[in-house]
Amino acid sequence: MSLFSQLNFRYAVHDPKDLPPDEGLEVAFAGRSNAGKSTAINVLANRKKLAFVSKTPGRTQALNFFEMGPSQFLVDLPGYGYAAVPAKEQERWDGLISTYIKNRNSLILLVIIADSRQGLTPLDQYLLDWMAPSAKPVLVLMSKADKLTRQQGLQQLRAVEKQLVTYPAESSAILFSALNKTGVREAQGAITRFVTGTKKPPVKGE
Asked: Which residue of 25, 26, 62, 129 lies most exposed, with the fewest beta carbons within 10 A?
C-alpha cells in the first residue's frame, strides 16, 4: 500500500507555537498561490477532496498536517505571494512558513509546486534561500505541464534544473500535470524513496 493511499487529515496549525512535537518524518508541499499545490496533493493521493482546492488563490491559511503512516506526515503549507491577500495576513503566512522551514527538524524533503510555464520565480527562490542552510533535499514539481508542448516542457525543465545547480543539497525537478497525470508516478516514487529511506536525525537537544 502506498504512502499516499493512507493520507488522512490530522490537524491545522495557524501559529508556530502550536506545532506538534518535532519528531518523526515530514514532507512539506509549498508553492505560490494558484500554482496547483492542493490539486497536486489530491492527484498524488488519488483523492478528489483531500486537500482543499479553490479557484480563489490564497485559501490555504494554515500548515495542514496529513498522516501518511506512523510518525510520517505530509504538510501542506500556505500559498505565498498572492497580492489580493491583505499584507498583514500574508506577513503572518510568511512567518509561519519560514519558521517551519528553517527550524523543523522533522522536515526531510521540501516539494515546491511551480507553474511549468513560469519556472522558478523570485518568490520560489526566496523559499530555496530559506531552505538552503538546512541542506535538506528539494523536489520541484513543475505543474500544469499539459499546457506546454513536449519541447517547451523540456526547455522549461532544463531551465529549472539549471537554477537548482546552485542549491547546496540534493535537488531535482519533474514535469507534472494533474490533468493528464504526467509525472505523477515519478513524483510518488521520489517522495516514497525519501520517506522510506531516511533515517530520522536526533531531535534537537538529545
From this structure: 129
